[in-house]
Design goal:
Blueprint: H1 2-36, E1 51-53, H2 58-65, E2 72-74, H3 77-87, E3 94-96, E4 130-131, E5 136-138, H4 142-152, E6 155-157, E7 171-173, E8 178-181, E9 186-189, H5 195-221
Parallel strand pairs: 2-3, 6-7
Antiparallel strand pairs: 1-5, 4-6, 7-8, 8-9
Length: 222
């Protein structure tokens, strides 16, 4: 009986090791993909490198920020010029972070009936609208965080961009990637499989890391 129990334990431990190895290999592939899609022209950190969207909101964030996700983050104009100089003939874009004093106020939930929120930001465009910032994790340095807060301060996630509140002056975006920018009167659809895939793979990596840790604990227990 003891020998049988030992064999069962050894089988369980071996199964946990194989599972951990498979997950580790998958995690390595995800990390390789993310490394290949990181950074901005000139070798600088890109705005996207410091952002994570909650699962299901990746395409909404991609639609809201567009090409700016791949722009370099600069603390001031002088640094931005140096980054573009390094990019050379390839060209590029740099986003200059606002100063602390000029940063947008922290996002707070506005009234869904269209009343102006107390912090002076754009009011919600309709019932059920959510601030996109509430579904975005800011992981970069201070300049990147200030930029993201400024760029996303007036972005709302809605079910549809049709039928928004009259006078809405912000940006409305759906989780399917449809975006309406009131200031420029621009309506656009972002296709899936672009920058949103990078954001989705980042979420997948976090899940795999947690699974690897759990598998290692299960192997030790076995």
């Amino acid at each position: 009986t003891a020998r049988r129990e030992r064999r069962e334990l050894e089988k369980a431990a071996e199964a946990e090791r194989r599972d951990a190895a498979r997950t580790g290999a998958e995690l390595a592939k995800v990390n390789q993909f993310l490394r290949a899609h990181a950074g901005a022209p000139g070798g600088a950190a890109a705005l996207a490198d410091g952002l994570s969207a909650a699962p299901g909101y990746e395409l909404a964030l991609t639609a809201a920020l567009g090409p700016r996700l791949r722009a370099a983050v600069a603390a001031d104009v002088a640094e931005g010029e140096r980054l573009l100089d390094r990019a050379g003939r390839d060209g590029g874009a740099a986003l200059v972070a606002p100063t602390d004093a000029g940063a947008a106020p922290a996002a707070t939930s506005g009234s869904a009936d269209g009343a102006a929120p107390s912090d002076g930001a754009t009011a919600a465009p309709g019932a059920g609208a959510e601030r996109l910032l509430d579904h975005v994790k800011l992981e970069g340095g201070a300049p990147g965080r200030r930029l993201a807060e400024r760029l996303l301060a007036d972005v709302w996630v809605v079910e549809s961009v049709d039928g928004l509140a009259e006078g809405f002056a912000g940006i409305a975006v759906t989780r399917a990637g449809r975006v309406w920018k009131a200031a420029t009167r621009e309506l656009r659809q972002v296709p899936a499989g672009g920058e949103d895939r990078v954001l989705a793979e980042r979420n997948r990596r976090d899940g795999l890391v947690a699974y690897v840790e759990k598998a290692a604990q299960a192997e030790q227990a076995a």
